[in-house]
Amino acid sequence: MAWITKNSVAPIERRNEPYLSDELKRKLTDEVLTRYPTRRAATMPVLHALQEEHGWLPAQAIEEAAAFLEVSSAETMDTASFYEEYWLKPKGKYVIWVCQSLSCELLGHQRLIDALRNKLGIEVGETTPDGKFTLVTAECLGSCGSGPCALFNEKLHENLTVENLDRILDSLA
Amino acid sequence: MPLYEPVLCKRIPTPPWGEISDRKLVTYQQYVETGGYKSLDKALQMQPKEVVDIVKAAELRGRGGAGFPAGVKWSFLPPEDGKPRYLAINADESEPGTFKDRMLIDFDPHIVIEGIAICMHACRLDTSYFFLRGEYHHQREVMEHAIREAYDHRIFGPGSKLGKINDRWPQLYLHRGAGAYICGEETGLLEALEGKRGWPRIKPPFPAVAGAFGRPTIINNVETLACVTPIIEHGADWFKSMGVPPPAGSAPGTPASFGPKLYGVSGHVNRPGVYEDELGVKLSDLIEGLCCGIRGGRKFKAAIPGGISMGVLSADEYEAVLDFDVGRKHNCLGLGTAGVIVMDEGTDMVAVARNIARFFAHESCGQCTHCREGTNWMYRMLTRIETGEGTTRDLDLLLELSGSMGMMPGNNICGLSDGANWAIRTIVNKFFDEFETRVTRERGVSLAVVS
Question: Which of A8, B306, B318, B339 has the fewest beta carbons closer than 10 A?
């Protein structure tokens, strides 16, 4: 997880409108910066807020976050690239995280992954061409007693079977 | 002897006292109506040092995996100097098989918040960060709401009933992680709190001396702090009436296993879930009693006592007593988080080892070479063995490798690879036949067994 690095050959795609809007800056200044003794400590909440707004973290957004936190952009990139939940590439509208840790594997998580691969026509790590679903595997989601389980964005589904998987996918427009 | 009445599950319906399906969130109002926040009021009548002494006398050991006595940890703090001091609550519950803290947060967040407030008073800590793992989205909402309730009722914030600590009003903030197992390591957690990648720090200095932002910091697990609440209410002797005393003839000061414990059982059992019992329950009683036996009436093959890093108990150890001493008695790492994973006779132990190796290879933070490279080697070798392409050389190297990296051999900063070691080593040694039949023999290679 620690070894994703920025592609320094490709130029950063830029847009004129900032990702970190003045309104978001105000909100973060009032609600988040006050909680920590250093500005840098707000890195994770700032990245979470940016990702919530834009769906992922473009390089320009990370640079803006660094400027806001008064640290170098390399330091913010360092943090952003370390953690699994920060997306440095665009993702689908719904990210399906299927738990693959021991309890879920014992209870048949592979059936779920195979069913999802078939139904969505993508491999683990890919996004459907219409940009709707991204399929990934996750390590322990903390639902060992009710596995196999999967997160659909922020919603956890427990005791999953191939049948109720179909129902969940159909309900996501 | 089973627990007479639930302690941590007092407000959370749990068999045999209640039904899991009846569990619902206990609000601040309901918490107070059932005797909540009385322990805090009682603690506030005492001198901070008295509170620390009670927790020390109760011999409360940390519930997050290492089992370090909480009261002793608290007493490592240097004297106050008027500058900020922190409490970090470790709710980065990411060890596969562990889901006990999640239950406390889901249903009774105020028992934890009360423990936090008592700890802040006792240790003179003015700011607390509740470090919640990123994947716990629902729990974040519950906790944010509970923290707001606590602020509304003057547990924290300006005018708090705790009074000013270090000349500051006490605060409790939620800090959300972003998916990294290593942030459950206490100094990795502190790095994440400071906005950096979660790379564990070299100790000393220990966090109690120089932790978050270079200031004295206490880091405790959610369940540990939840235990503080009933200890203050009922006293140290009551707490020590549950659990297992130190083994006869052991040196004075040997830590025992007192108090209630949440056991999260998953895998091939009929009724998986989080149950409460005193420390020292027998594995067989846990499976056949509270969990209603193994699925499909099949035979027991193996169990992991407390999160995958602890290693494995084989069928011969079905009667193992689950207390903090389990590691010494049954050649595994320890009780860990008491997240028990049960496996029936149909389980492929090579696949189990491969799954565990993949977890550690994926979660190694990459800081120390042995762990970064070693966990990946293990995963590749076990994948080869599972698909029938492994050789005796792989098996040899696997055993050698799993004895030569980590904090115990002394070449890594944190214990992540010790977890990988113990898990893989105990599985290979206790189920050696299964591995041996899967590998092909290479000429001139011996099968050395590393214990």
Answer: A8
* B93 contacts on A by Cβ (under 8 Å): 142
Question: In chain B, which residues have their Cβ closer than 8 Å to the Cβ of A42?
Answer: 195
Asked if B178 lies within 8 A of A47 by C-beta distance, the reply is yes
- Each residue's pLDDT tens digit in chain B (451 positions)? 468 899 999 999 999 999 999 999 999 999 999 999 999 999 999 999 999 999 999 999 999 998 999 999 999 999 999 999 999 999 999 999 999 999 999 999 999 999 999 999 999 999 999 999 999 999 999 999 999 999 999 999 999 999 999 999 999 999 999 999 999 999 999 999 999 999 999 999 999 999 999 999 999 999 999 999 999 999 999 999 999 998 787 887 788 999 999 999 999 999 999 999 999 999 999 999 999 999 999 999 999 998 999 999 999 999 999 999 999 999 999 999 999 999 999 999 999 999 999 999 999 999 999 999 999 999 999 999 999 999 999 999 999 999 999 888 889 999 999 999 999 999 999 999 999 999 988 765 556 665 5
Does residue A147 belong to the interface with chain B, where contact is any CB pair within 8 Å? yes
Q: Inter-chain contact A147–B266, Cβ cutoff 8 Å?
A: yes
Predicted complex ipTM: 0.95
Minimal-distance CA residue of chain B relative to A142: B99
Closest partner CB to B97 (pick from A41, A75, A144): A144
Q: Where are the beta strands (DSSP E) in B92-190?
A: 127-132, 171-176
For chain B, domains (ranges, CATH) are 20-241 (3.40.50.11540), 257-344 (3.10.20.600), 349-436 (1.20.1440.230)
Q: How many CA atoms lie within 13 A of B419 on its CB side?
A: 28
- Euclidean distance between CA atoms B157 and B75, whole angstroms: 25
Which residues of chain A lie closer than 8 angstroms to B213, CB-CB? Answer: 37-38, 41
Do residue B198 and residue A83 have CB atoms under 8 angstroms apart? Answer: yes
Length of chain A: 173
Q: CB–CB of B99/A142 below 8 Å?
A: yes
Residues of chain B neighbouring A78 (CB-CB closer than 8 A) = 196-197
Q: Hey, are the CB atoms on A103 and B266 less than 8 Å from each other? A: yes
Burial of B66 (0-12, 13-18, 19+ CB in 10 A): middle
Tokens linked to A164: 């109720």
Look at A142 and B134 and tell me if their CB atoms are within 8 Å: no
Q: Identify whether the C-beta of residue B281 lies closer than 8 Å to the C-beta of residue B322.
A: yes
Is residue B255 less than 8 Å (CB to CB) from chain A? no
- Structural domains in chain A, CATH included, are 1-88 (1.10.10.1590), 94-171 (3.40.30.10)
